[in-house]
Design goal:
The protein is of the alpha+beta class and 92 residues long. 37% of the residues lie in helices and 21% in strands. A hairpin with a 7-residue loop joins strand 1 and strand 2.
């Protein structure tokens, strides 16, 4: 599976999704605007969100495996008062 999003699109989507979380508002699913988006693209967006969170001082305090009903299993990264998901076999 190859990537379909440019680095600029990954950065913009990460900002969009994270701002929705920080400002507590709904967003439409991003695949409405990017229907060819792959799992690899989605993981890139998640890694950028993680990078942004850590840059603001969020610390990873633990990890656990979580089966989300799709393969591969995901690795849940537990933050202090927050959690989000990153791929368990991602190379970053």
């Amino acid at each position: 599976m190859s990537k379909t999003l440019s680095q600029e699109q990954v950065l913009a989507l990460a900002e969009h999704v994270e701002n929705a979380e920080l400002q507590a508002h709904d967003i439409t699913k991003v695949t409405n605007d990017f229907p060819d988006m792959t799992f690899e693209d989605a993981y890139d967006v998640q890694w950028e969100i993680r990078r942004r969170k850590e840059a603001r001082g969020n610390k990873i305090v633990g990890m656990k495996m979580a089966q989300m009903g799709v393969e591969p299993s995901n690795l849940e990264v537990i933050k202090r008062n927050k959690s989000f998901y990153v791929e368990s076999n991602h190379t970053n």
